[in-house]
Amino acid sequence: IASCNCARRRAQLQDAMLDGHFHFGGKKIAIAAEPDQLFQLATFFAGLGSEIAAAVTTTDRSKILEKVPAVSVQIGDLGDLESLAVGADLLVTHSHGRQASERLRIPLMRIGFPVFDRLGSQHKLAILYQGTRDMIFEVASIFQANQHAPTPEALDPLRNREISR
Asked: pTM here?
């Protein structure tokens, strides 16, 4: 029975990845978290086709930081995240990131500690098949809720092209 549950959960995760990956491709993600969680989240987003636009953590004392799939990892705080996150599609950090999210007009995915402004956050699973599946759905739903209608220029990049004679 345990192997049956495992196979079912694996299939559910694969379905979630198939359904969700369209929403992740090319998105710019700004993350502030402790080193281990920064690595886990950055690897999750990069694995689904997103770019880690900003990676901020609290200490340089962890070797896992060398493996974070980002151009650089900034040792800093939420002020650093806010300055690095301009142009990002999603902020990923704890509840104190809500002010930066509002100022930058970028959606916030609350994760880490503390999450004090959402009920039940301490019960959310973010690991293994089920937790990864649920995180894919959560992030894809955030992206869906914050879609912007494409402009004519975005749909036709050749529209205003100058022709040389």
From this structure: 0.83
